[in-house]
């Protein structure tokens, strides 16, 4: 029973990270289902919430949640916040840090590169249905965090290979670039909190990752 409780606690922490952070990469603050997540972040006490954030040491979590709360200080419909999301993730201008894995790991720096197709094959082999249309690459960081949460709830035995082979291979590299490119405290904090959460999860699971060459 004690071991089951530990496993349930671990799965719950993994699901929390994916469910909380994933939507913040996928939607701007004034559209879609992510509004409730943005509002919940805005109401946080960073000092208290940082002590409870999974896989990240308290001081780092407090600092990064503090950046995110600061960035939401003018409301989730603040023009600067909305436009920063669109600058980073939508365009039409060239994105300073594209959110797809194959942009960094494919020699041609393209979406739908080999790493995208490898993830698609892995999902198919493990009976994981796509939640997006065929035109949306599966290796968008937001989608991958949401999938991490889904695995925690439904196929927890796949968490390790998913992280080891498909997420951690590029996530820190990308999230460092995103934090550097961000011109708004919310998205700088989001990028670094996601990075530290995934790296903390890597340490907890003691995962050895074969890092590829990065082309961007």
From TrEMBL:
Pfam families assigned to the protein according to its UniProt record, in alphabetical order: Nitrate_red_del
Domain of life: Bacteria
SUPFAM superfamilies in the cross-refs: TorD-like
Keywords, alphabetical: Chaperone
InterPro entries: DmsD-type, DMSO/NO3_reduct_chaperone, TorD-like_sf, TorD/DmsD_chaperones
PANTHER family, per database record: CHAPERONE PROTEIN YCDY, TAT PROOFREADING CHAPERONE DMSD-RELATED
Protein name (database record): Tat proofreading chaperone DmsD
